[in-house]
Write a structure and sequence with these properties.
The structure holds 3 protein chains of 3 kinds.
Chain A lengths: L16 H30 L11 H4 L2 H26 L3 H32 L1 E5 L4 E6 L6 E11 L19 E6 L8 E3 L3 H25 L13 E12 L4 E4 L3 E4 L4 E8 L1 E10 L12 H10 L3 H18 L9 H4 L5 E2 L38 E5 L3 E6 L6 H37 L1 H31 L1
Antiparallel strand pairs in A: 1-2, 1-13, 2-10, 3-6, 3-9, 4-5, 4-6, 7-8, 8-9, 10-11, 10-12
Chain B lengths: L4 H31 L9 H22 L7 H26 L3 H11 L1
Helix pairs in contact in B: 1-2
Chain C lengths: L2 H6 L16 H6 L4 H31 L12 H4 L10 H37 L7 H20 L18 H4 L11 H29 L12 H33 L10 E2 L2 E2 L8 H35 L6 H14 L15 H29 L8 H20 L5 H7 L3 H31 L5 H28 L13 H4 L2 E3 L4 H9 L8 E2 L3 H15 L1 H13 L64 H7 L1
Antiparallel strand pairs in C: 1-2, 3-4
Classes of the chains: A alpha+beta, B mainly alpha, C mainly alpha.
The structure holds protoporphyrin IX containing FE and copper (II) ion.
């Protein structure tokens, strides 16, 4: 028997198999994105003002225009898909092809803007949360969010995985050669090149583990002779001179001479520089009650770097006028701390005058610290304000990637998954465009059905974006 | 569905119309997001509701016209109704749980951490 | 296989008639798109995985019973030794790893693939009279996703970090902060668990789409909804559960992957300290969100585990009592209600997470409500036994035992619906006992029953009855030997996930269970070689449970022997319908060829027409036309819809 209803619809259900299939699949997709939307709402509503990292409104931190154009692009592509389907229904292969090309083009444009948005967020925007929860936003210069360290001696632990420090060695250090000082057998190589390090480590690890197991067995069986049998070696000390930039995320303990990694590697040497250099764009005091905002650490750092009080003056003036405004709502004039916190005090666009990429939302910005980006001071890139932040004053350093907070996390996860759907859908449709002719010649209705099913998926992807755009960019 | 040429022509017209409507609605959403707050970029619940209503209208258009739901048979509706029910359950009940914590315990944790 | 090919062969032997275009071996048995081959693949893989899950459990049980003694046999194997401590004892970490993987493997790689993947795949298209699944290639993809997911789970044991250790629930932030000591977070067990789960979920989703589409669109002529065997209904509901409940878990897995690999903080709250250090993430996430997403799947999942079991038992009982299934329609509606309700009870797993009283009340209510359809199902099965002349073959033994075993599991679940009782019982062995009664002597027994029942269809040979009995009785005894004492321990306050079986909690574990001079005490002390008259403490029950667990392993040997021997040496069946059953799968040749039916099957009646008064035989198969009227009924049927 052949499988029935592959092209024609079954009479009582009115559907051919693939259509049922795709609607069921879409149902599960609804639950997939439904889960993500629930997570969005849960996280956003659950954010405790002043306690958790502030949930920024999209309109404050996103450029709207790429999202806007992408929305239009996807809508256009949706129209193209239905027209391609109609063309098949009319048995016009060439027209079908033309519309399909349009869809693929739209997908490419969409992903292009996506790539632009992602890279902009990842590379050009950073936040430094200081220990008192005031947040400086801007662009970190030259990987200065990493610890720069001159290493001389490394101790690795074979009971763990491949140590991570090898990924943090400066590129210009070349193929560093390590000299094994301690912890390897006589007949093992005395030096290891960086390029060989992983292999070397794995071999050593295997041997070390085997030795450790043998030792355990001997001890348990009582055949171990203390002093005679050599205990298993599970660590090795190596020396080499190289500079590295270390992600503090992986460090559990450190001082001027030592870095202790989470993976039990120890690197000894000398600290070169440990301060973060930030080209200042905005100050975010959402976690600080308003009446305390003039005493935050952020001001101190800004002072030290620029000596320019204009920003501070402007921001504080805005704050005072807002407090006045809020007071009106409290009859006795006493404003509770809770009311003084909240999503009001994000002073952004500190350097509008330069006009590049940060100034798209200034039409509605309420709290402009003004266009006094203080070119005269600082002496950094393009005359921006460069703030130098000692590491021990920074609680959390991040770019505007997914790490930056739950908003960014869900933004990247949802748009990323959506992007994968765009790619998947485009591949399916491209398949019909390039390889559909065969099916078309055999049975045009079959291809029309398949395009309809592929189109259903494509519309669904469009539909998800219709919701993503407002909740990520506008709200 | 859609076997005769007139029907197809009619469909084509509706597709263009829906496409245009979607464009317009997109502009409207962006506009409202900016226009609604003379007091700065403060999103009140009104903006959120408005934005979601517009998005719902847009997505209904897509689902009904582009995805041919208006022509579809009952079975698909049944499946989608189940799905909607479960999605609603997930969304509503998690929020329900979020908004009904044991308050003392919650405050105690926060204070301990602060 | 084209339709003509099968039709031509209709007179001769269908299954060896295709030689003119027989596909190559790898296409026929490995990358096959035939639902029966895929079903067998699922079944075989799942049985192997389950054996591994069982093995992990046996090691755990050693650690529980004898926390201060080295593991026998295994401690002398070098590769195993590397997991143990210097004395060859199970460490807490190893226990966590094995415990987490036992749960994961048993549920996601064992029972679901065996129940839904194997039996569902094999039997569903046959029972509705379809030539195959609606999307055979999707079906194959589903199997291979499952296979890859399983392999990934097993590979993770041999990573430097070992496999996942945060329980099968994988709660954050524990799961997020486990294995942090590895620079390459990608290749840690904890992360690979998530990727493997994503694959398994994908597999289930593909399967679910396929099942539902098949059942909706490929029913044979005359197979109206109310003529579907209950098995098919259960598969339909299960399919919907998988389809709609799994995606939120996929979301949770993706978000946890992000947390682990990218450093987001979806599930990491503000102010978290790990090992005395502030955890370097933005914070602001919610561990409760993870629990919600997990249990949104987790609860429907337990019905995914139990509905196929009901389905199998509901096929076997009427066939062997020679009586119609009692309350077929009620059972169908009960299964649907069960499916619906199962989506709104999940937070009964979260009573102790600081939920307020209104939410608790809501979930208590729905949880108590959902017990109603479950009780309807089990009661219908029980009543179906009434007044039958029961044929106690091995399949029927297991199916009958399923009823009281599930009954115990289900009834002990009721107290867990109430949050005031959960205050005491949460995370104790009582819970472990409760759900194991449901899944181990419950579902697993039903699955065994299914194997005994459908084995002749695929192989054309019967399984040995003697070995079947030898499999059943010890299994029944030892299953209860393991799980019954868990209730006592749990109520006494024994915490689950304790690698020393509670020894560290002196006050709890030293409670008296039975005085040493009682009969039970005498037997116990004798059996375990202890001084006569020694009192039996609560913690001593661990000895009984562990011994039962190992003996249970021995009890499976007859089954394995039976399975392999019978394939070659079992008694040959004399007809295509050896059990005299009524459903459509018995209308196919034995074994069913590719394309299943020689001619397009037609359904004439409901599924369980046994002992119909006035009929020639005690069963009227669905596929046999009415004698008296001669005219096939489907005309009437077609008018119906
Ligand atoms: C047939 C014999 C089985 C035995 C003797 C057994 C025994 C155990 C034991 C001793 C534990 C650990 C309890 C603890 O330390 O908290 C456990 C946990 C568990 N078992 Fe089983 N089990 C069996 C079958 C199954 C089956 C068939 C399933 C599922 C379908 C299953 C699912 C689980 C789950 C989910 C856990 C919890 C794991 C966790 O704590 O994360 N078990 N089992
Ligand atoms: Cu539950």
């Amino acid at each position: 028997m052949e499988i029935p209803y592959e092209v024609t619809a079954r009479r009582d259900t009115g559907l051919y198999n693939a259509k049922i299939g795709v609607w069921l699949f879409l149902a599960s997709e609804v639950m997939l994105f439904g889960g993500l939307f629930s997570a969005y709402v849960f996280l956003r509503v659950g954010t405790q003002p002043g306690f958790d990292n502030p949930w920024p409104m999209g309109i404050n931190v996103q450029k709207i225009w790429p999202g806007f154009i992408n929305t239009l692009v996807l809508i256009a592509s949706s129209v193209f898909v239905v027209f391609a389907w109609v063309a098949l229904k009319e048995r016009k292969w060439q027209v079908f092809q033309r519309w399909m090309w349009g869809v693929i083009l739209c997908a490419v444009i969409f992903m292009g803007f996506k790539a632009y948005e992602y890279s902009d967020k990842l590379l050009n925007h950073h936040d430094v949360k200081l220990v008192d929860n005031s947040i400086l936003g801007g662009k970190i210069l030259d990987r200065t969010h990493k610890i720069r360290f001159a290493a001389e001696e490394v101790t690795v632990d074979f009971s763990g995985g491949i140590p991570g420090f090898i990924g943090e060695i400066d590129e210009d250090a070349g193929d560093v050669e390590f000299t094994v000082v301690e912890g390897a057998d006589e007949d093992d190589p005395k030096t290891v090149k960086l390029s060989q390090f992983k292999k070397w480590f794995s071999t050593q690890r295997r041997e070390a583990m085997a030795e450790a197991v043998a030792e355990k067995m001997k001890r348990r069986k009582g055949t171990w002779e203390e002093g005679k049998d050599e205990p298993a070696v599970t660590k090795a000390k190596l020396t080499a001179k190289f500079n590295m930039h270390v992600d503090p995320h992986y460090i559990v303990q450190r001082n001027e001479e030592t870095l202790n990694y989470r993976d039990r590697t120890t690197v000894k040497g000398k600290l070169i520089d440990d301060s973060i250099k930030l080209e200042l764009h905005n100050i975010n005091l959402q976690m600080i009650p308003m009446q305390q905002q003039d005493a935050v650490l952020a001001w101190k750092l800004i002072h030290e770097s620029t000596g320019n009080d204009d920003i501070k003056k402007q921001v504080l003036e805005t704050r005072d006028s807002r407090i006045e405004g809020i007071k009106k709502y409290y009859e006795d004039g006493v404003v509770p701390v809770k009311a003084l916190r909240g999503p009001y005090v994000n002073y952004h666009n500190l350097h509008d005058s330069h006009g590049h990429d940060h100034g798209h939302d200034h039409s509605h910005g309420d709290a402009h610290a003004g266009d006094h980006g203080s070119e005269e001071a600082g002496g950094g890139h393009h005359g921006e304000t460069i703030v130098t932040i000692p590491r021990d004053q920074a609680r959390f350093v991040t770019n505007h990637g997914p790490r930056a907070g739950t908003y960014y996390a869900i933004y990247f996860t949802m748009t990323g998954l959506h992007g994968l759907h765009v790619i998947g859908g485009a591949l399916v449709l491209a398949y019909f465009l390039f390889f559909g002719k065969r099916i078309y010649l055999k049975n045009p209705e079959h291809l029309a059905n398949r395009v309809e099913v592929g189109g259903l998926f494509w519309h669904f992807v469009d539909l998800v974006w219709i919701f993503l755009f407002p909740i990520m960019y506008l709200m | 569905m859609a076997s005769s040429q007139e029907e197809l022509d009619r469909l084509k017209k509706s597709y263009v119309a829906v496409g245009a409507a979607l464009f317009v609605f997109t502009v409207v959403t962006v506009f409202t997001a900016h226009w609604w707050h003379p007091f700065g970029p403060v999103m009140g619940w009104r903006d959120v509701v408005l934005g979601l209503i517009i998005a719902t209208v847009k997505s209904s258009l897509v689902a009904l016209i582009f995805m041919h739901l208006n022509h579809e048979r009952g079975l698909v509706y049944k499946v989608l109704t189940f799905t909607f029910y479960f999605f609603l359950g997930l969304m509503a009940l998690t929020l329900f749980a979020l908004f009904d914590p044991i308050p003392e315990a919650f405050d105690a944790i926060q204070n301990a951490l602060r | 296989m084209s339709a003509e090919a099968t039709l031509h062969d209709a007179t001769g032997h269908a299954h060896d008639g295709h030689d003119h275009h027989d596909p190559p071996f790898w296409k026929k048995y490995i990358f096959s798109t035939d639902h029966k081959v895929i079903g067998i693949q699922y079944g075989f893989t799942a049985l192997v995985f389950m054996a591994v899950g069982f093995f992990l459990m046996m090691v755990m049980r050693w650690s529980i019973a004898y926390p201060d003694r080295p593991v026998p046999f295994l401690a002398d194997l070098p590769w195993f030794q590397s997991w143990l401590d210097a004395d060859g004892k199970v460490t807490g970490e190893l226990y966590n790893m094995f415990g987490a993987m036992h749960g994961t493997i048993m549920i996601f790689l064992g029972v679901v693939p065996l129940a839904f993947g194997a039996f569902g795949n094999y039997v569903t298209p046959l029972q509705i009279g379809a030539p195959d699944m609606a999307f055979p290639r999707l079906n194959m993809a589903s199997y291979w996703c499952f296979f890859l997911g399983g392999v990934l789970m097993f590979v993770s044991f041999f990573l430097p970090s070992g496999a996942a250790k945060a329980g099968w629930t994988n709660y954050s932030p524990l799961a997020t902060t486990t294995d942090l000591g590895y620079a390459n977070q990608f290749w840690t067990g904890q992360t690979q668990w998530l990727f493997a789960m994503a694959l398994l979920i994908t597999s289930s989703l593909l399967g679910a789409v396929n099942f539902i589409a098949t059942i909706i669109n490929l029913r044979a002529k005359g197979m109206t909804w109310m003529r579907l065997p209950f098995f098919v209904w259960a598969m339909l509901v299960t399919g919907f559960l998988l389809l709609l409940a799994f995606p939120p878990l996929e979301v949770a897995a993706i978000m946890q992957i992000m947390d682990r690999l990218v450093g987001t903080s979806f599930f990491v709250p503000t102010g978290l300290n790990v090992a005395g250090q502030p955890f370097d993430v933005a914070g602001g996430g919610s561990p409760l969100l993870y629990q919600h997403l997990f249990w949104f799947l987790g609860h429907p999942e337990v019905y995914v585990l139990i509905l196929p079991a009901f389905a199998i038992v509901a096929e076997i009982i009427p066939c062997n009592t020679r009586r119609p299934l009692w309350g077929y329609k009620v059972m169908v509606y009960a299964a649907m209600v069960l499916g619906f309700l199962s989506f709104i009870v999940w937070a009964h797993h979260m009573y102790l997470t600081g939920m307020g009283t209104s939410v608790s009340t809501f979930f208590q209510t729905t949880t108590v409500l959902i017990s109603v359809p479950s009780v309807i199902l089990i009661t219908s099965l029980l009543i179906s036994l009434w007044g039958g002349s029961i044929r106690f073959n091995s399949a029927m033994l297991f199916a009958t035992a399923f009823i009281p075993m599930f009954g115990i599991g289900g009834l002990t679940g009721l107290p867990l619906a109430f949050n005031n009782l959960v205050l005491h019982l949460h995370d104790t062995y009582y819970v472990i006992g409760h759900f194991h009664y449901v899944v181990a002597p419950g579902t697993i027994f039903a699955l065994f029953a299914g194997i005994y029942h459908w084995f002749p269809k695929h192989t054309g040979r019967m399984m040995s009855e003697k070995l079947g009995q030898l499999h059943f009785w010890p299994s029944l005894i030892f299953m209860n030997g393991i799980f019954l004492p868990m209730f006592f321990q749990g109520m006494a306050g024994f915490h689950r996930r304790a690698f020393d079986g509670g020894a560290a909690y002196q006050q709890i574990s030293s409670q008296l269970f039975m005085p040493g001079d009682s009969v039970f005490g005498g037997i116990f002390n004798f059996l375990f070689g202890r001084a006569a008259g020694q009192d039996i403490l609560m913690i001593d029950l661990n000895l009984i449970m562990s011994a039962s667990a190992w003996l249970l392993a021995l009890a499976q040997i007859p089954f394995v022997i039976n399975l392999f021997i019978s394939v070659f040496n079992g008694k040959k069946v004399t007809s295509d319908n050896p059990w005299d059953a009524t459903t459509l799968e018995w209308a196919t040749p034995t074994p069913p060829p590719h394309g299943n039916f020689l001619t397009e099957p037609v359904t004439y009646r409901t599924a369980y027409e046994y002992s119909v008064p006035g009929a020639d035989e005690d069963f009227l198969p669905q596929f046999v036309p009415d004698k008296e009227t001669g005219a096939p009924e489907p005309a009437k049927v077609a008018a119906k819809h």
